[in-house]
Amino acid sequence: MRNAPRLIGLSRRGLILSGAGLLAAPLALAEGVPDGESPANPAAVRRKPVHRAQPKPHAAEGHAAPTDHDGEAASSPEEAMQRLMAGNARYVSARATHPNLDAARRQLVASGQHPFASILACADSRVAPELIFDQGLGDLFVVRVAGNVVDDAILASIEYSVIHLGSTLVMVLGHERCGAVKATVDALAGHPSEEDADTRIGALAKLIAPAVKAVPINTVDVVDSAVSLNATNTAVEIFAGSRPLRERVLAGKLRIVSARYDLDDGRVSPTRGDPKMLMTSLG
Ligand SMILES: [Zn+2]
């Protein structure tokens, strides 16, 4: 994936690689929108949630099927999305319950993990998924990297969380005033930070650049627009880059969504308008 083409505003090689499956990507992404503003993925809607087999007793860590104990039901993508957004609502309204953090929970998950959702978030210190979604130990499989970009190692981590741990929701989470996105905007505008010379920070900017370039002209807040586009771009790359994940999405067993975190009010919102733009780019 390191040299894989980005899918927004770039070459169409990625589209060719992913074939017809990519056509469903914007719909699959839009399906995660809670308010139903965007079109749903018909294939996913038609199918009822698929629940997994019962867990094996004392199954090895990391390879157990999801269990039904202690509220840890093998959740559907819809249930996972609702659980995430309900947690964020508690956090936003200062009613966080900080669940699943006691010694009993620690003991329960010590022998196996069954996270209900996987989050690819920016490494920014203000965007800790367990906190902003009010979740506890064993609830979320979290991958974090500045700019919430994806490469081979990150994609492999996400695949592992879905295929081996049973996660049914993958959320790419960008955030307001992302420093990595801002640095990319500055670099593309011809004002790279001198402090970044001889660093590997340019490698991040390279992955974020397609989203920045896809920001419509005359956009007032270029960074914020790029944050949303970058999150969507990464979500589509996950979809396009993994056949097993793509098959799960098309079968209604998995959702891959993108969202933006607001640093000021703490709210997580699905990125909007992007699926339509992607459809246009597929033209
Ligand atoms: Zn960031």
Account of the 3D structure:
This protein has 283 residues and is of the alpha/beta class. The model is unreliable at 1-5, 9-71 and 273-283 (pLDDT under 50). The chain is globular, with a radius of gyration of 18 Å. The chain has twelve helices and five strands. Bound molecules: zinc ion.
Topology summary:
Elements: H1 13-18, H2 25-30, H3 42-46, H4 77-92, H5 103-109, E1 117-121, H6 129-132, E2 140-144, H7 152-163, E3 169-175, H8 179-188, H9 201-213, H10 222-241, H11 243-250, E4 255-261, E5 268-270, H12 274-282
Parallel strand pairs: 1-2, 1-3, 3-4
Antiparallel strand pairs: 4-5
The structure holds zinc ion.
- How many domains? The number is 1
Radius of gyration: 18 Å
CATH fold type: Beta-carbonic Anhydrase, Chain A
Count of discrete alpha- or pi-helical segments spanning 4 or more residues: 12
Please state roughly what percent of the residues sit in beta strands, choosing from under 5%, 5-15%, 15-25%, 25-35%, 35-45% or over 45%.
5-15%
- Largest beta-sheet characterization: 5 strands, mixed
Task: Please state the second-level CATH architecture.
Answer: 3-Layer(aba) Sandwich
